[in-house]
Design a protein that fits this description.
- The complex is a heterodimer.
- Chain A is of the alpha/beta class.
- Helices cover 45% and strands 17% of the residues of chain A.
- Chain A is built from 17 helices and 14 strands.
- By secondary structure, chain B is an alpha/beta fold.
- Chain B has one domain: TIM Barrel (Alpha-Beta Barrel).
- Helices cover 48% and strands 14% of the residues of chain B.
- The longest helix of chain B is centred in the last third of the chain and has 15 residues.
- The chains are: A alpha/beta, B alpha/beta.
Chain lengths: 404, 266
């Protein structure tokens, strides 16, 4: 507790977008004016009751909020805890929490009078969520996606196209999410006057980490209210997977001042002892990537490493700056689960609860299973089930059939 | 007095414009960069920018992205680039700036970088992803070693911000001629002239124009409202295409026409 008190937890970031030493704006000058404009638009929207009402309307009538808090009784029994609850973001339209953010940002796009949106995507979930809201509002949409990922996620590519978006294949660098972000930023630098860039996670330059977090905080707010409604207080533990970190910050943030402990689960890929993982908080160092300072996987020369994870949504060498700060402040704990542990998580949830999770939150389930010894019989755990497994079924089937 | 300032004072006296060439260090090789610099100088180059290759160069177009990848594949690192500058200094006093994204400098260590860069004979630094609001520690480290820090101005930069950037910048100000990334454009923007004259009002520092200037004709047009022009992607691409040509001949064929376009007697 001593350690925690030294750090400010709420009211961040500061006016420059800093979370302690992390965050900020590290972008080409051409974008600085657009970021200021976005910041201003967001600030005024946040105070505007009409904007809030409109967002609430679309979250409710289009995306399907509020999402239930489902008790996972059989899995909870296996873990040996009092309650295990799942926050069911997997039940949202398009299948994941991503739409909480894209709805907010598309409303801002309209408000700013921008005529076109762009997005990056790894697994395709954020791309689909962006293409969806773009179709809803009749705004042309182009999605950058690494050539590698386009092959891995053919179904989502088709979904985006069906929704009227143009999918642009990124053939530079590693041809994955990292390079898709680079290309989207380059597009934005070029077309900044009429284009809004919908970033999909709590990464990027200020105000994105703050804005995307705020749009995702509905996860934690609903969770808190639902727990209260059933007569339970704040849970002992909040658990969520961390790639860029948007579903986890959305769950954690409304609880920052509570006594709940927070566990963010990164992707350990083939293992933390290998070079094949995506654990930027567990093993990364301070660096600048995609417009903000945070923890990054990189070599000693400052070249960004390639990440690896079975889940394309966690396959990213950086992480949101607020997570780096929460780790430094000791407010949240960050751990990692391997590809294999995630697959066990998929099986456990599917077979015990009748819910096939996406590979991303399966990492959090895998962690709980492996470390069930650390939890007490009296503990209540809330796990953010950030997405459903439909998109991953083919990959899961391949992975489970292959001998280790 | 530092070499950059001296160069611009000299150019002012002669009423000349600065001709600045950019190459990605390590492409085609550090040895080739080193050998080429004196020839470029002979053919009219006033300043040299050496790009420090980075894995995620988000302000760069395809030509410099590819050059950076090639340079990294060859094992180019910041210490090796500093050695290159040290070697250049044995032969030439041409002002040399490093153009680097922030992260490689951060990992090297700001204090250590300022010390080693100064000792190697670097005169200034351009960091395309560093706005004046960030990293005071870095700025102080450079100042401590009297290294110039050149900030960029963009066509989207408003008047108030222009003044902030002008005040923070030293050596010269880098005016980004297009709303976009580095790389050749078919023509320079028709709004460049009025944009430049607005930018000039913000500062007494020399104003040099870069991004998208690929031909001697474009260089001449861009230089009309500025104190210098920066040729980057066009040089990098020419180097790639003419890898077999001798450095002397390459400089004569590629650099000299730019010098002539700027009215230099070489």
């Amino acid at each position: 507790m001593q350690k925690m008190r030294r750090f400010k937890l709420t009211g961040l970031p500061d006016s420059g977008g800093h979370f302690g030493p992390y965050g900020g704006k590290f972008v080409p000058e051409t974008l600085m004016t657009a970021l200021e404009e976005l910041e201003e638009a967001y600030r005024s929207a946040k105070k505007d009751p009409r904007f809030k009402k409109e967002l609430r309307f679309y979250l409710g009538n289009f995306a399907g909020r509020p999402t239930p808090l489902t008790e996972a009784k059989r899995l909870g029994k296996i873990l040996g805890v009092r309650h295990l609850f799942l926050k069911r973001e997997d039940l949202l339209h398009t299948g994941a929490h991503k739409i909480n953010n894209t709805l907010g940002q598309v409303l801002l796009t309209v408000r700013m009078g921008k005529k076109r949106v762009i997005a990056e995507t790894g697994a395709g979930q954020h791309g689909v969520a962006t293409a969806t809201v773009s179709a809803l509002f009749g705004i042309p949409c182009e999605v950058y996606m690494g050539e590698e990922d386009i092959h891995r996620q053919a179904l989502n590519v088709f979904r985006m196209k069906l929704l009227g978006a143009r999918v642009i294949s990124v053939k530079t660098g590693s041809q994955t999410l990292k390079d898709a972000v680079n290309e989207a930023i380059r597009d934005w630098v070029t077309n900044v006057r009429d284009t809004h860039y919908i970033i999909g996670s709590v990464i990027g330059p200020h105000p994105y980490p703050e804005m995307v977090r705020d749009f995702q905080c509905v996860i934690g707010r609903e969770t808190r209210a639902d727990l209260k409604k059933i007569g339970l207080g704040d849970p002992e533990y909040l658990v969520a997977c961390v790639g860029g970190g948007s579903n986890s910050i959305g769950l954690f943030h409304p609880f920052l001042k509570s006594r709940s402990k927070m566990i963010g689960v990164e992707a350990a890929g083939l293992g933390l002892h290998t070079a094949q993982h995506a654990a930027a908080l567990t093993l990364g160092t301070t660096g600048v990537l995609h417009g903000s300072k945070s923890r990054v996987l990189q070599n000693k020369d400052g070249q960004i490493d390639l990440a690896h994870s079975i889940s394309a949504g966690l396959d990213y060498p950086g992480v949101g700056p607020e997570h780096a700060y929460l780790k430094m402040a000791g407010r949240a704990e960050y751990v990692a689960a391997t590809d294999a542990e995630a697959l066990l998580g998929v099986k456990a949830l599917s077979q015990n609860e009748g819910i096939i999770p996406a590979l991303e939150p399966a990492h959090a389930i895998g962690y709980l299973l492996k470390h069930r010894g650390r939890f007490k019989k009296s503990d209540t755990i809330v796990l953010c089930l950030s997405g459903r497994g439909d998109k991953d079924v083919e990959q899961i089937s391949k992975a489970l059939n292959e001998p280790d | 007095m530092n070499r950059i300032r001296e160069k611009f004072l000299d150019l002012k006296k002669k009423r000349g414009k600065a001709l600045i060439f950019y190459m990605t260090a390590g492409d085609p090789s550090l040895a080739a960069n080193q050998a080429l610099i004196p020839f470029l100088e002979k053919e009219g180059a006033d300043l040299i920018e050496l790009g420090v290759p980075f894995s995620d160069p988000l302000a760069d177009g395809p030509v410099i992205q590819a050059a950076s990848q090639r340079a990294l594949k060859r094992g180019t690192t910041l210490p090796k680039i500093l050695t290159l500058v040290r070697n250049v200094r044995k032969k030439s006093q041409i002002p040399v700036l490093l153009m680097s994204y922030l992260n490689p400098l951060m990992q090297y260590g700001y204090e250590r970088f300022a010390k080693d860069a100064k000792a190697a004979g670097v005169d200034g630094v351009i960091v395309p992803d560093l706005p004046p609001e960030e990293e005071r520690v870095f700025v102080r480290a450079l100042k401590g070693k009297k290294l110039d820090l050149v900030y960029l101005l963009a066509p989207t930069t408003g008047p108030a911000r222009r003044r902030v950037i002008a005040k923070a910048s030293s050596g010269f100000i880098y005016y980004v001629s297009v709303t976009g990334v580095t790389g050749a454009r078919r023509q320079i923007s028709p709004s460049l002239r009025p944009d430049l004259s607005a930018a000039k009002k913000a500062s007494r520092l020399p104003l040099c124009v870069g991004f998208g200037i690929a031909t001697p004709g474009q260089a001449k047009a861009a230089a009309a409202g500025a104190d210098g022009v920066i040729i980057g992607s066009a040089l990098v691409r020419a180097l790639e295409k003419n890898s077999k040509m001798s450095h002397g001949l390459f400089a004569k064929k590629f650099a000299a026409p730019f010098a002539r376009a700027l009215g230099k007697a070489v």
